[in-house]
Amino acid sequence: MRDNKLLKFIVKRLLLSVVILFFVAMIIYGIMRCMPTSFVEEMARQRATRPGSNLSYQDWLDRLNAVYHLDGNPVTGFFGWLSQAIRGNFGDSWAYNIPVTEKFGQVIGYSFALGAVSFILQLVIAIPLGILAAKKQYSKTDYAISVFALLGISLPTFFLATLLKWVFSIKLGWFDLFGMVDRMHQSMTPIEQFFDIVKHFVLPTVTLTLVSVGSMMRYTRTNMLEVLNSDFIRTARAKGLSEKRVINYHAFRNTLIPIVTIVGGSLPGLFSGAQITETLFQIEGIGYTSYQAMIKGDIPFSMFYMLFIAILTLLGTLLADIMYAVVDPRVRVN
Length: 334
Known about the structure:
13 helices; globular; mainly alpha
């Protein structure tokens, strides 16, 4: 019975997500139509002046407007673009001169690696420290952990990244200021190349972890305090159970329930890229690539990236709701 309700809930949310995604796509296309036409004109001018080009500026302008459905009625243009997008055809990137999906495939791995490592570190650091702070409420340990968490929440990414680069790159010289590989990367052995890339990912990973760990740490502490003040915890202590078993078995399991929902909702974010961090360290992931595409007026790639983020957001919300219904037996999906 419960499985049927959960299945109906998932189907209903999937259908609702499709409707929401349709209107999001409409907004994205509308934003593109409102952008200055100078981007399209500049691209047409560049292609018309290339050596060996047989088409005039006006011919290129008409062709680009037709390919990306920028001419004619906005309604028919939207459905024309949407029909191509559903097939996975987002056109060629103007900034990179290759298909948008091909460029996406080249860079998404770097963003996933950066996001996955920082996400694992975030869980490993935030959950134990949050539980420790709750166990020792109002102690020096609690205050120290709370200060560390608030610093992570409050420090802007660009400030923390600049500070880390100033200390570890300029003063100590342990890491390069930016980039993904050393200038001698091609002459290295495969193992040396791997560790060279890992070395260049250290500071971006630390930056992304520190700015993200504070909120989960505070959330874990708050939930742990709520569980520790529950009636079933007082009953477990009254039965004579050791404090270690009360904390590590009864309290910890119930604290994880709301945390699992956050973790589930955060998983799609591993593919979205960390635009600020990647840009500051020039890590060629999806975040850095999309930023470069936007400042260069690359309309096809920008539209693809905005739609990609919308899909990830809807998937994250759906996954969080499903995880909550699965891990908490008290929840009944109506």
